[in-house]
Automatic annotation (TrEMBL):
This is CTLH domain-containing protein. The keyword Membrane applies. The chain crosses the membrane at residues 6-24. It comes from Arabis nemorensis. The keyword Transit peptide does not apply. InterPro entries: CTLH_C, WD40/YVTN_repeat-like_dom_sf, WD40_PAC1, WD40_repeat_CS, WD40_repeat_dom_sf, WD40_rpt, WD_repeat-ST_regulator. WD repeats lie at residues 256-290, 301-342, 516-555. Residues 93-147 form the CTLH domain. It comes from the Eukaryota. Keywords: Membrane, Repeat, Transmembrane, Transmembrane helix, WD repeat.
């Protein structure tokens, strides 16, 4: 008989693991009838050896069946859930719990409190207190302050949590009649969690428990996955997950060769569809990706008199700005490739540039060691940062628009200029000269490249804190740029003077997890595609751009 039960349970189980939808349909139509026609199978209590399942025998079969029943109900298969309860002889909840939960669902709080007697709890008061609290919110939402006050008095008499009663009393004062406090509506699931915790374990099965357990297992697998780098949609509950190191971009998938001199800078657009590069050849190029994932030249942006040190995307990817070395900052239309306008200070050349977080303005780091701001139409915005850098390099604005970040005094400092208070609020001091920096998209981390070929990673939410230093890449003469990228920005990539690209992962920052060879000149800059975590680009003195993808032989 036990064997017969296992078969029927097995069919139900498939509902959750892959190809079970077909089986489910069979269960819902003719096969269901067949099963109902079969006499109920008494199983679990018949054979104590079957009470536990799992490869370590840790799972109580009765509990497993109960969460299966709950899962079926949450998926809308109440009829199959009822069948499972009947066939197994194990109800999701006892009759008294079922009745109690119905009263909770209907908001019959006084009857809920009366029903507690049937549970013979060691202490009913905390449960009554919680039920009254929920009742308080619902009454308050109707604007009935008198009744809400009466409920508070009942709660006081229980002597469970005086502070909480005071908190609720304060809501009586701030709540206008008829105003929806929304707290009770939003906290219904939280209320159910608290309620379950007040009963002995297993009396009330938490809703969607199976879903929770399976998802938690996935979260744990991702957490322990070495070099995790796949989108969440790639996860499957049908097998154990482990990326190993197969999902790190490591193979050249394309070489772009339209520049005729050293490529100094490159950056993917926010939507991942374009790549912009700039070169010593005084041009910038906008590359567009096709359906096969291959890039082709969309526009060559020409007009600068000097090498182009940076090309940066507007937040909406409709424009780029280019920074000519000791020259002007120009803006360009991405669609047409047309020159839109320039941003300059008479007689003062530009060193670096950046966008406002919302695309409404341009930042220029200029040769007179000052930072200038312009509206998009070219009008200058008054800005006095006070402290001048000895020699400015990068400037950037955080994506929330709060901070203007720049290399400060004597190039050993990073300044955080607060745009609300109009002054420098934080400063990071490095031991060595800073050559470039890069912000993470979530504004939590800052990568600082030092002249000593070291990259320091700082946590910048709140008081800046250095969390580690990366070694491995080679830098002695040029500006080498690094970036965050991959899943959750867990990877750091960097160019290097030894013609290689270095990649580190958060789990093992000390050693690079990949060193990519292919370029024949110094790698000046790298960019990780923000919408394709398997795509990395690198720009080199060899005049080429390499697009790196995952190794197809390993995937
Ligand atoms: Zn993984």
């Amino acid at each position: 008989m036990g064997f017969a039960f296992s078969l029927s349970l097995g069919a139900g189980f498939c509902i959750f693991f892959g190809a079970g939808w077909v089986i489910l349909n069979h269960l819902r139509k003719p096969p269901v009838k067949t099963l109902v026609d079969n006499p109920p199978v008494k199983t679990l209590v018949d054979n104590p050896l079957l009470d536990f399942i799992g490869y370590k025998g840790l799972v109580k079969k009765s509990e497993f069946i109960r969460i299966l029943t709950d899962a079926l109900i949450s998926l809308g298969f109440d009829d199959i859930a009822a069948l499972l309860e009947e066939r197994s002889g194990i109800p999701l909840h006892s009759a008294i719990v079922k009745q109690f939960l119905k009263l909770v669902k209907d908001g019959e709080w006084d009857k809920c409190i009366d029903a507690l007697q049937g549970f013979q709890l060691r202490d009913e008061k905390p449960v009554s207190f919680l039920l009254l609290e929920q009742k308080f919110y619902e009454v308050l939402n109707t604007g009935n302050v008198t009744d809400a006050r009466r409920i508070l008095k009942e709660m006081v008499r229980l002597r469970v949590d005086t502070n909480r009663v005071h908190e609720l009393a304060s809501q009586l004062i701030i709540s206008a009649p008829g105003e929806d406090t929304t707290e009770s509506v939003n906290s219904r699931s939280e209320f159910m969690e608290k309620l379950q915790d007040l009963f002995p374990p297993g009396v009330i099965i938490p809703e969607r428990r199976l879903e929770y357990l399976i998802e938690k297992s996935l979260v744990d697998q991702v957490y322990h996955c070495s070099f995790h780098n796949v989108p969440d949609s790639d996860l499957s509950i049908c097998y154990d997950h482990d990326c190993e190191d197969h999902k790190i971009p490591s193979e050249t998938v394309q070489i772009l060769e339209e520049h005729i001199d050293e490529v100094w800078f490159l950056k993917f657009s926010h939507n991942g569809r374009y790549l912009a590069s700039s070169s010593k050849d005084k041009s910038a190029i906008i590359w567009e990706i096709n359906a096969e994932g291959k890039f082709s030249l969309k526009h060559k942006l020409e007009g600068h008199q000097n090498p182009v040190v940076e090309v940066l995307w507007s937040p909406d990817d409709r424009q780029v700005i280019t920074c000519g070395e000791n020259e002007v900052i120009r803006s360009w239309d991405v669609d047409s490739g047309a020159f839109v306008g320039s941003y300059e200070r008479n007689g003062v050349g530009s060193i670096s540039c950046g966008w406002f977080h919302d695309g409404s303005g341009i930042i220029g780091g200029m040769a007179d060691r000052r930072i200038y701001l312009w509206h998009l139409n070219g009008t200058e915005i008054e800005h006095e940062q006070g402290q001048r850098a000895q020699n400015l390099s990068d400037v950037a604005m955080t994506t929330d628009g709060k901070w203007l970040v720049s290399v400060g005094k004597e190039q050993h400092e990073i300044s955080f200029f607060d745009r609300e208070t109009n002054r420098v609020e934080d400063v990071i001091v490095e031991e060595d000269m800073i050559t470039s920096f890069s912000l993470s998209d979530n504004n939590s981390y800052l990568l600082i490249n030092l002249i000593t070929q070291k990259i320091n990673v700082w946590y910048i939410q709140g008081e800046p804190m250095k969390i580690l230093g990366l070694d491995g890449h080679k830098r002695s003469r040029f500006i080498i740029r690094s970036c965050f990228g991959g899943y959750d920005e867990d990877f750091i990539a960097s160019g290097s003077e030894d013609s290689q690209v270095y990649i580190w992962h958060r789990t093992e920052w000390r050693e690079p997890c990949r060193v990519l060879s292919g370029h024949s000149g110094a790698v000046n800059c790298v960019s990780w595609n923000p919408t394709d975590m398997h795509m990395l680009a690198s720009a080199s003195d060899d005049g080429t751009i390499r697009i790196w993808g995952i190794d197809k032989n390993l995937n």
